[in-house]
Write a structure and sequence with these properties.
The chain is built from five helices and 43 strands. The strands form ten sheets. Strands 1, 2, 3, 4, 5, 6, 7 and 8 form an eight-stranded mixed β-sheet that branches. Strands 25, 26, 27, 28, 29 and 30 form a six-stranded mixed β-sheet that branches.
């Protein structure tokens, strides 16, 4: 209605119409949100979720105006002086289209929450894809999201939330619902129509006000059936005191009649296992479990409402002895001295920081650590924040993970993508998909519930905020809100090394396997021979194919070639990252052996003088 009214006004008085600047992703042709357009007088406009900026600056109309063009993870072309910007002839009712190069692998789609999501589109009289494009439930900003499909709708809940009417807002969890993608009424590429639970004054009301002072935060949100077949929506909660200390933990359950969470029970803040992070469902053998992902999906419980509420049934995949704690760590070792990982009750998981401490203290060897994330381009270890959102991806036939890096090129704004063969891993080689210039984008949440079945697109969002970043200025309207991204999994830049398993431990090429589910559930993954590609990648890759009783690497496999995996050409310049892969040929038609070590002495075998190609080493092997 507002857009239609403005269209009529502009038609009656063209001089009142703003100048439309539309910034498009040169790769996809879609509008790019969060692009800053700054005049030489220092006035900045930011594109809305459609990539539009409505320019109507008094004194700067009807003349040429220069705009510098900047955006996190995008780059506008430079002029002859190396300046990223453009001069435009600005006239009321006029328009200009700018194309900007995306450096991020992930594509920024829109803002999910806050004020003015499609502000400029409305000012320009354009149609908008959501019902409340300007202000929904008086929400101007909100912290990180959790969600789940419950009773045929998506239920969304957030952390501390700002309101338009006062400086203090909702610190006890606002909530909303939206249709599912399966309903046919949702286009996850354009926006989410949120129906908030609101109070008498129209502001998003608290839906999880638990006993105790301070904010309530929830996590581990899951919809599970109880013994009677009724679906229940459950969560874990914490109470916070300054600065950010958890002093109380408990569980809550959704009340369909009051549309809020009811208190279920409390438990000690230092219990070793509890619902936390972003849950996922996965069947192990004959049992379906709910896994909780923080550093990785290392905590689980049977996927029933009753089991969820019984902390005694929770178990962690850990190398600690049963019943020991992180404060007094004891490694569970077998007779051969190796660290043993297993599902254990009453025992905490070993996260990123805990694993680093165990290695530093000499209790765990570096290759025994379960979490071995590193940059695929440089080999540099990636310190992941204690937030993970793994999910099974049908298109890739892999478990995918969207990870936040701590102290990367920004403090909390670098997002990475990794793949694995099981929820447990191996999570190793990752590539950066989103970057920020001195700004935070924390607590990313992957949304498999927004991906259509078999789709190559993966959706995720995170909290865009100046908090913790050191940024001197807040981005108007965008700050402290949720931004949605889309990742095209067919992008050749996402062709990452995957584990190559040795089924029998002898190195025979015929026994090497990709996607060995049994091996992928046996940490610390000692059967991994090396890492290689399972598909071609940008810049070229050699298909390693069997030819008689030998192997060869070919850039373009023929119709009868069946690649075992893909390797980089031997002349690829990646010092310190990849290693040569050698073929050892045996006497009397013995099967060839593949190994990254070139100095093996194997009776009846000789090493081929030149390597087949280059692959990535396994961090789970002894140096």
């Amino acid at each position: 209605m507002t857009s239609l009214l403005l269209t009529l006004i502009f038609a009656a008085d063209p001089a009142a119409a703003p100048f439309a600047i539309e910034v498009l992703d040169e790769q996809t042709g879609r509008g790019v949100p969060l692009v800053e357009l700054t005049t030489t007088s220092g006035v900045s406009y930011f594109t809305d979720s459609a990539g539009l900026a409505a320019f109507d600056e008094p004194g700067l109309m009807n003349q040429r105006v220069f705009f510098s063009v900047n955006s996190h993870g995008y780059a506008f072309s430079k002029d002859a002086f190396g300046i990223r910007g453009i001069s435009l002839e600005v006239k009321p009712g006029g328009s200009a289209q700018l194309k900007i190069k995306r450096l991020n692998i992930a594509e920024r789609l829109y803002r999910v929450t806050g004020q003015g999501i499609y502000r400029d589109s409305v000012l320009l009289g354009r149609d908008t894809p959501i019902k409340e494009p300007l202000l929904n439930a008086q929400v101007t900003g909100c912290d990180s999201v959790v969600n789940a499909v419950y009773q045929g709708r998506i239920y969304w809940f957030w952390g501390d939330t700002n309101q338009a009417g006062y400086l203090l807002g909702n610190f006890n969890v606002p909530g909303a619902t939206s249709p599912t993608v399966a309903s046919g009424t949702v286009d996850p590429d354009r926006g989410i129509d949120l129906a908030y639970f609101v109070g008498e004054k129209g502001f998003a009301r608290p839906v999880c006000k638990m006993p105790g002072d301070g904010p309530t935060w929830i996590n581990g949100l899951a919809a599970l059936k109880d013994a009677g077949g009724r679906e229940r929506l459950l969560c874990g909660y914490v109470k916070i005191k300054a600065p950010m200390t958890v002093y109380r933990r408990g569980m809550a359950i959704w009340n369909d009649e009051t549309s809020q969470f009811d208190h279920l029970r409390d438990y000690e803040p230092d219990v070793p296992l509890f619902p936390d992070g972003h849950p996922l469902l996965h069947r192990d053998g004959d049992t379906e479990f709910l896994y909780f992902a923080t550093s990785a999906p290392l905590v689980r419980v049977k996927a029933t409402a009753e089991s969820y509420q019984d902390l005694g049934q929770y178990e962690a995949f850990t190398c600690l002895k049963t019943g020991t704690s992180l404060a007094k760590s004891e490694i569970d070792r077998g007779r051969d001295g190796r660290a043993r990982y297993a599902w254990k009750q009453n025992t905490p998981p070993v996260g990123v920081s805990e694993q680093a401490r165990l290695v530093k203290d000499g209790l765990l060897k570096p290759e025994e650590g379960l979490l071995q994330l590193r940059d695929v381009a440089t080999g540099t270890p990636i310190v992941a924040h204690n937030n993970s959102c793994a999910a099974w991806n049908e298109h890739r036939k892999k478990w995918t993970n969207i990870l936040l890096q701590v102290f990367g090129t920004s403090i909390l704004g670098e997002i990475w993508y990794a793949e694995a063969d099981s929820p447990l891993g191996p999570w190793v080689y990752a590539t950066k998909i989103v970057t920020h210039d001195k700004y935070s984008f924390y607590n990313p949440k992957q949304h498999p519930i927004l991906s259509r079945k078999g789709s190559r697109f993966l959706y995720f969002e995170g909290t865009y905020t100046h908090t913790f970043s050191g940024a001197e200025h807040r981005t108007p309207r965008y700050d402290y809100n949720q931004l949605m991204y889309r990742l095209d999994l067919d992008d050749p830049r996402l062709a990452l090394p995957v584990a190559v398993y040795d089924a029998k431990g002898r190195g025979y090429a015929r026994d090497l396997r990709l996607r060995d589910v049994a091996a992928a559930n046996k940490a610390p993954f000692e059967t991994i021979r090396f890492f290689a590609l399972d598909r071609p990648r940008e810049g070229g890759a050699l298909a390693i194919c069997a030819v008689g009783n030998a192997l060869r690497g070919v850039l373009e496999p023929g119709p009868t070639d069946t690649p075992l995996f893909y390797a980089l050409p031997t002349d690829t310049d990646v010092p310190g990252i990849t290693v040569p892969l050698y073929e050892y040929l045996g006497d009397n038609d013995a099967p060839p052996i593949l190994d990254v070590r070139g100095d093996l002495e194997i009776a009846g075998y000789r090493r081929c003088p030149e390597p087949l190609g280059r692959v990535w080493p396994s961090p789970y092997s002894k140096p």
